[in-house]
């Protein structure tokens, strides 16, 4: 998408996620997932007149649009084209020893999904791509044509809970032996052929889970998030908060466990009479249960359906 005027993404938990960070003037925030800048703009507004924002995105198209959206706050924000896997380094490169809030709004933006040519969508026929960062060389085409049946089965099962993962992987391997699989349309046809007709009629689109699994693998989303969440806790100043918006159960589970573990401190086995790990709690969990979207939010943004918000505060 080169025309930034058509970049349209409705922020999920637009108010709740920003309030969670308790924005204040003079404080410094990091939005790890700038996207359409909906949250970033709200953070800058709420921390006026002197709050500062570092906003990260690995997608240059999102960044081009966000620069226009954030123009009214010129001088108070820095946009960094990078993967948030580098969060700690990015904070250090800005000459900062800590920040007061970190936001993650995980996954892809609506424009990334809707722009057929990026290959994220099973609804548009396009080259198999799925890279959030177009400067990365590894694409969905490489994965589909080069990974073994076992590797493909594993990501479809682990990242998308696809119960037909083995059959889909076998069909992919069989088809690519005839000719390379180049497009999302070809992949959708292979998935449809692999899933028995009765099962195909259950739930949503038969290709939905496979596309999710491949996208997560192409962008290494879960490993990146696991690293970044620890860095987020590290870079927070005492009293600073991390807010995490997730869109599927694997991400939410990772967020929940990482925050719980950081809140627990001691990781010694329960049978040890005295703590030997000497770990101390690093955060207080603010959301024992995740915040879920209101009926009102769901009515105007169906994409929020599976969203969950978790918040923790640095001790
Ligand atoms: C759901 S959108 C964020 C929307 C944004 N919060 C808003 O209100 O407009 C997620 C964005 O994060 C970016 N992103 C996802 N994973 C990333 C990563 N590991 N590093 C940097 N950016 C990432 C995507 O490119 C996408 O633009």
From TrEMBL:
GO terms for cellular component: cytoplasm. Pfam families: Methyltransf_5. InterPro entries: RsmH, SAM-dep_MeTrfase_MraW_recog, SAM-dependent_MTases_sf. One of its GO terms (biological process) is rRNA base methylation. Keywords: Cytoplasm, Methyltransferase, rRNA processing, S-adenosyl-L-methionine, Transferase. One of its GO terms (molecular function) is rRNA (cytosine-N4-)-methyltransferase activity. Specifically methylates the N4 position of cytidine in position 1402 (C1402) of 16S rRNA. This is Ribosomal RNA small subunit methyltransferase H. The lineage of its organism: Bacteria, Bacillati, Bacillota, Bacilli, Bacillales.
């Amino acid at each position: 998408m080169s025309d930034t005027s058509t970049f349209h993404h409705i922020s999920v938990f637009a108010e709740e996620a920003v309030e969670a960070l308790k924005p204040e003037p003079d404080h410094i925030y990091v939005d790890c997932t700038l996207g359409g800048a909906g949250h970033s703009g709200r953070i800058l507004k709420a921390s006026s007149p002197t709050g500062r924002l570092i906003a990260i995105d690995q997608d240059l198209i999102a960044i081009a649009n966000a620069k226009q959206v954030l123009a009214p706050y010129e001088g108070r924000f820095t946009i960094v084209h990078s993967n948030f896997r580098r969060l700690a380094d990015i904070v250090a490169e800005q000459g900062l020893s800590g920040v007061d809030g970190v936001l993650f709004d995980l996954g892809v933006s609506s424009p990334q999904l809707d722009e057929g040519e990026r290959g994220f969508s099973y609804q548009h026929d396009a080259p198999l791509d799925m890279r959030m960062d177009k400067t990365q060389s590894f694409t969905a085409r490489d994965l589909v044509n080069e990974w073994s049946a076992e590797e493909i089965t594993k990501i479809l099962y682990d990242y998308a809970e696809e119960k037909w993962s083995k059959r889909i992987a076998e069909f992919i391997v069989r088809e690519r032996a005839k000719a390379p699989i180049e497009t999302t349309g070809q992949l959708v046809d292979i998935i449809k052929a692999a899933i028995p007709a009765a099962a195909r009629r259950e739930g949503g689109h038969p290709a939905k889970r496979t596309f999710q699994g491949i996208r997560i693998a192409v962008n290494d989303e879960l490993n990146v998030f696991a690293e970044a969440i620890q860095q987020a806790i590290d870079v927070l100043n005492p009293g600073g908060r991390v807010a995490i918006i997730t869109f599927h159960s694997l991400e939410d589970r990772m967020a929940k466990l990482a925050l719980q573990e950081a809140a627990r401190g001691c990781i010694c086995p329960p049978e040890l009479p005295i703590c030997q790990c000497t770990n101390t709690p690093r955060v207080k969990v603010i959301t024992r249960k995740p915040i879920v979207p209101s009926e009102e939010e769901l009515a105007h943004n169906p994409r929020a359906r599976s969203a969950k918000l978790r918040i923790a505060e640095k001790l």
